[in-house]
Amino acid sequence: MHQTHAARLMDGTGLARRITERSAARAAQITRDTGTAPCLATVLVGDDPASVTYVRMKRARCEKAGIVSRHVGLPSTTTTAELVDAVSALSQDPQVHGILLQHPVPSHIDERAAFEAIAPEKDVDGVTMRSFAAMSFGLPGFVSCTPGGIMRLLEEYDVDLAGRHAVVVGRSAILGKPVGMLLLAGNATVTYCHSRTKDLESIVRQADILVAAVGRPQFIRGEDVKPGAVVIDAGYNPGNVGDVDFETAQTRASLITPVPGGVGPMTIAVLLAQTVDAAARQLGLGPDRRVLSCDGAR
């Protein structure tokens, strides 16, 4: 009879707490040294219930970590030009150190134009083309928060990327594409899969490191997970279900992220750490390499 084992869980909640405690201590130090507290501006267009909840949660975490939160709420009728103006004003405001534009924005708005209005030094969510280029070229800059959190988790659990086959299922601009670039910077061999991929299961079965980022519940079958693989489930679907069939996958993987409690808490931890980093740089202090060591140069 085939002997099954349970994969070791990658505890994003605990690691996120440690990163956030460090960020809070650093925010307090910056406030003491400069008289200015790090400030994150959140911009929300419309009143999508999920987005409203996310923004409220991010603001609460900010305030708990000693980061000032400034909220800009705009009506769903806002035009692209109006949103670009609002974001540009925050980019030019010296009191604001980081900017988070909650996405998705209403469909009539050019989201990319709005993202590009964020000054690169304030792009703590890692959504601009400049940030993507920095991730791709291994240059200093801010990483997309979920990919950054994934890299930090892999590092925490001593996952050696060099020469391993990493398969990323999903190619969104803020998750799939950048996480592939960061894995590549860590010397993994990276395959991107997406809705047009033929014979997805056979590619998934080759993955030493599998990143599921499709936003479809239990889309990746557990039996397609390679024995001993590291499984990162970046999906979060209604009912607290990820993109991977967790029950089966955990009998085959060596390491796996739970949903919730895996990737999710890491995303906000990276956002807070990068906001503190942005404030430090803008206020003339150096970055703290120990808070996050997942920049592309690794």
From TrEMBL:
Span of the signal peptide: none
Keyword terms of this UniProt record: Amino-acid biosynthesis, Histidine biosynthesis, Hydrolase, Methionine biosynthesis, Multifunctional enzyme, NADP, One-carbon metabolism, Oxidoreductase, Purine biosynthesis
Domain Tetrahydrofolate dehydrogenase/cyclohydrolase NAD(P)-binding: from-to ranges: 144-282
Xref: InterPro entries: Aminoacid_DH-like_N_sf, NAD(P)-bd_dom_sf, THF_DH/CycHdrlase, THF_DH/CycHdrlase_cat_dom, THF_DH/CycHdrlase_CS, THF_DH/CycHdrlase_NAD-bd_dom
Family annotation (Pfam families): THF_DHG_CYH, THF_DHG_CYH_C
Residues the entry annotates as binding NADP(+): 170-172
Catalysed reaction, written as an equation: (6R)-5,10-methenyltetrahydrofolate + H2O = (6R)-10-formyltetrahydrofolate + H(+); (6R)-5,10-methylene-5,6,7,8-tetrahydrofolate + NADP(+) = (6R)-5,10-methenyltetrahydrofolate + NADPH
Pathway listed: One-carbon metabolism; tetrahydrofolate interconversion
HAMAP family per record: THF_DHG_CYH
Assembly, per entry: Homodimer.
Family statement drawn from the similarity comment of this UniProt entry: Belongs to the tetrahydrofolate dehydrogenase/cyclohydrolase family.
Record's function text: Catalyzes the oxidation of 5,10-methylenetetrahydrofolate to 5,10-methenyltetrahydrofolate and then the hydrolysis of 5,10-methenyltetrahydrofolate to 10-formyltetrahydrofolate.
Name under which the protein is recorded: Bifunctional protein FolD
Gene field: folD
